Amino acid sequence: MKVLLKQGSDLLSPYVGECERNIARAFKQAQDNDMLLIFDEVDTFLFARAEGQRSWEHSMVNEMLTQIERFEGLLVVSTNLMSGLDPAALRRFDLKLNFDYLTLSQRQCFAEQQAVRLGLNFTNGELSAINALSLLTPGDFAAVERRHRFYPFREIDEWIEALADECKLKQGKVSRRIGF
Hints:
By secondary structure, this protein is mainly α. It has eight helices and three strands, in the order E-H-H-E-H-E-H-H-H-H-H. It has helices at 8-11, 18-32, 55-70, 87-90, 104-118, 127-131, 138-150, 156-170, and strands at residues 3-6, 36-39, 75-77. Strands 1-2-3 form a three-stranded parallel β-sheet. The chain starts with a strand and ends in a 10-residue tail after the last helix.
């Protein structure tokens, strides 16, 4: 299937009612062209209505809920703020996937692969440091790899410290669940 990817900048508008029209257009375009419709960061459009203060905020969520319910195509949404979604939204999704923090074996695999790509000498001696980083995600490895492009790690310890810094940013600020 061809993919139709939509994010907030594609749908939000400063004009009352335009956001709802943009949402409806996205669903229609996907339906008419047999496309996989993807909403990235759907919490922008499906936040809990109890938190909304203006009528247009409620109508935007209502429009999204209505469109989801009527849509006969394939829809995929993502969010890191599942707890902030309107309770009615979750009932409209047939499948829900939670991508949690990497398991021990996943952390080790990501670490070994990234060390090779970055030209770092990764040995079993570094495994205990990686094993201790229980809040790692694939995105953390990606961020550290991007950082390496402009500030290369000379030693394996610098790289491990960068991964640890990514974990420190999250400590005490997130639950174990990080999205679906």
